[in-house]
Amino acid sequence: MRKIYDVIIVGTGISGLSAAAFLRNSGLDVLVITKEKDLAETNTNYAQGGIIAWKEGDRKEELKKDLFAAGVNYNFDDAVEMFAEDGPKLVFDFFINDMGIDFNRTTEGEFDYTEEAAHSTRRILHYADHTGEKIQSSLIDFVKKFDIEILADHTCIDIITNSHHSRNPRELYLQEEVMGVYVLDNVSGDIKTLLASKVILATGGLGNLYQHTTNPASATGDGLSMAYRAGADIINAEFVQFHPTSLFHKDIKRFLISEALRGEGAKLIDHDGNEFMHEYSPLKELAPRDVVARAIYDKMSKTGKQYMLLDLANNYKGEKSIEKRFSKIYNTCLSGGIDITKEPIPIVPAAHYFCGGIKVDLAGKTTLKNLYAIGETSCTGLHGANRLASSSLLEGLLWAKKSTDDIKQNFKPIPAHRFAEIPDWQLPIYREEFDDLLLLQDWKAIQLTMWNYAGIIRTEKGLSRAKADLNYYSHRILSFYRQARLTKQIIELRNGIVCASIIANAAVHNNKSLGCHFVRSK
Predict the structure, then answer these.
(1) Rounded distance, CA 177 to CA 214, Å?
(2) What is the helix (H) or strand (E) element at residue 409, kind and residue range?
(3) Distance (Å, rounded) from C-alpha 495 to C-alpha 222?
(4) Which terminus of the chain is more solvent-facing, meaning fewer CB atoms within 10 Å of its CB: N or C?
């Protein structure tokens, strides 16, 4: 199958669906692709805490100060300025006024702004403790009202570029530009050639590269890997943010315990009931995420424990009951035998957010012509070396707006005769079937290597070991990939090993501790 579109968007989280919504009524032919059967299976859907929003009396300069402080002043100042100026108001303009999302309010009927770590004021809107789920479902309902084609259960294999794929030798001498994507139909196994004048990558993060993560299993770094292979610049790849508190439970995996609990008074304690954050930061539980994650990890190492504890029951200072304020966390923990109104929650740090990514400008444009990247797969420079809490959802929304504004204002279609020179995907003559157990084993090897050697606390020796081990896995996986019958799982594994290698290589070349890249001398 071949088809030509004006714009292809890969991903259905807050970035992808917001971009689709902003392109509605533009006159452009838009396609949205997701590798999942369910449009809601995204990192956005699992976000709990909230989204930074405009608040009367909250000065732009204060938000900028907080972003720089959390990012260890490694941020791109132009991105911080644009975010602080345009971002918070967009939540009201689009989510509240256009889409009608009713974020939580106080008993007086005012918006209930909450506090999270490293913020100097309460500026975060939320929908109980499942803000992302509410935004995700609202976006899906909103986008479905418009004539926008959505292709679910389809996995992108590679980005199509003129210099690499065109049969016309003249294209070798032109500027490299993106012309579409090769896409696998997960059900039929057919590979489609989907061409476009603009491609937007909104594929989310890569938390699944680590043993412990708050991300869904689909977070395998697909956009980053595709962009890297196509030749786009990648920056800040060593900066992987670990959320301090994910649920430690034998049956419940990948579940985030929101930072908002600490914003509402929860204290971190050891197995003897002693608070310990004062040993690591004067901000205690409200220190930046990298500081809190390292503190918990260090305390686990020193005590030989697999987890620490978060005590909300004895420290809660919220207006609503715990059951209502944190309904999702309460019910999920209760299903695992933990009553958070009466007992502390077992927690462990987990890979949460990728602060690096595909290098983009203020309009989301990458270093490849016609290719945009937005949301977690991109690196705008907003976060610097460590992300400020509840900034990611707004970053995704804002750059969706900026990128689509740029496309609408400057759209120039690629001539049809150039698309005609792009061949369809060529399958290998021999296609090997693979054993699911082997894939699982390779994933476990990658995840343990990244957790042990390129995780929360790193060493030069450990990073060298990670680089060597990943190089070995890479040769084996990529060799197999070239002969395998393509499936979603094998494509994800290839993307995973490519991204793991990118992170390890970046970490090896930066021997200075900064933000969430922490290198211990011994």
Answers:
(1) 35
(2) helix 392-410
(3) 5
(4) C
Alpha-carbon span 404 to 406, nearest angstrom:
5
Q: Show which residues are catalytic.
A: 289
Q: What is the pLDDT of residue 241?
A: 96
The reply to whether 475 falls in a domain is yes
pLDDT (tens digit, 9 = 90+) per residue, 338-384?
A: 999 999 999 999 999 999 999 999 999 999 999 999 999 999 999 99
Query: Is the dihedral angle over the CA atoms 80, 81, 82, 83 positive or is it negative?
Result: positive
* Shared domain check, 368 and 316: no
Is residue 60 a part of any domain in this protein? Answer: no
Q: Give yes or no for a contact between 177 and 161, defined as CB atoms under 8 angstroms apart.
A: yes
Q: pTM for the full model? A: 0.94
User: Looking at the structure, do residues 316 and 190 belong to the same domain, yes or no?
Assistant: no
Cβ contacts of 468-476, under 8 Å, gap ≥ 24: 469/445, 470/446, 470/497, 470/500, 470/501, 470/504, 471/501, 473/442, 473/445, 473/446, 473/449, 473/497, 474/498, 474/501, 476/442
Beta bridge partners of 154: 185
492: tokens are 């994800």
How far apart, in whole angstroms, are the C-alpha atoms of residue 31 and residue 381? 28
Pick left, alpha or beta for residue 349 (phi over 0 → left; psi -120 to 50 → alpha; otherwise beta).
Answer: beta
Contact 155, 184 (CB under 8 A): yes
